[in-house]
Design brief:
The chain is of the alpha/beta class. The chain folds into three domains: 2-62 and 239-252, no CATH class; 68-228, Ribonuclease H-like superfamily/Ribonuclease H (Nucleotidyltransferase, domain 5, 2-Layer Sandwich); 262-323, no CATH class. It is 46% helix and 18% strand. The chain is built from twelve helices and ten strands. The strands form three sheets. Strands 2-8-6-3-4-5 form a six-stranded mixed β-sheet, sandwiched between helices. It has a two-stranded antiparallel ribbon with strand order 1-7. A hairpin with a 2-residue loop joins strand 4 (120-129) and strand 5. Helix 1 (2-18) packs across helix 3 and helix 1 (2-18) runs antiparallel to helix 9. The two termini are 31 Å apart.
Amino acid sequence: MRGQQQTAAAQAFLKTLTTPTHPLHEEIMNRRDELVNQMLKMVRSWAVDARKMVEEVTQQENIREIVWVESDVRVRTARIGGRDWRDRAEMVNMSEVYEWLYQEDPTVVIATDGSLREDITAWGGAVWREGRLCFEWSAAKERRSSSFRAESEALKDALFWIGHNTDRSDKVVILTDSLSLVSKMESGVVRENWLEVIRRVEASVTVCYIPGHSGLKWNEKAYKLAGSAQPIGMLVRTPSDVLADIKRKVRDGEKEDQRKSWSVERLEERGRHYGEGACVPERGRRRAMFNQLELGVLTRRSLQNACRVSGTSISLIPGEILEK
């Protein structure tokens, strides 16, 4: 429960920090917690504690919200295949994509991909003009974000290249294996910081989903570029990035506390490991019984249930646990 409260406080703090219309935004943004009205003592205490937790991950000045807005310039989207393509022959997958490209007849094909490696967020892409590889790039930043963020950064770079290297006579297809990114764009929104880039684009652009790791040469090329990128600089964190790190820290702390408990010591005595119970297919009361068997104990409730089934009766001190 304590961990949930800490996470909720951090989430509220991040929302206040990144929402300019929030009544406490200026106080939080400018670190003026001590100037918050005396009537809001609880808010002041909450803000100080939440900031401390947030800044164990990163300084609040390094946090920016990514805003998605409707665009007056619509980018066409498409989809080819699905994740079941991973179980098909690579040549079959390639032939279907080639058939679609033949129908579209683009002058430029760009493949993009994102990559997460330990504490690094990376992305990259490659460009083919008239079927020939003419440009490739990769980039990375220290600090881990989400695969969606990495894919978004790769697409932004692709749009930037298009804006500076194509004209109205070009027809461009961008291939990405991020279904969530294509779905987002299908709703008619783009990242706010893409607007200026998109307005520079004169070519016709289609962003198309293709399945990743399905033997498609375009995706494989972008995947290798993103996977080999070396980080330069620190990634600006989003509230969701920071909250994910906080949840991870809270979860690790709770696990450490649990490892110190009597039940974990009991498992070690019996040659078992903490967390094995979560791997069994049973759920609810059946899992509880499995864990009790592994611990070699019987709870009061389980004993009472057994007695009820057998028609016997027994009285125990509340909360008492009997060892076998």
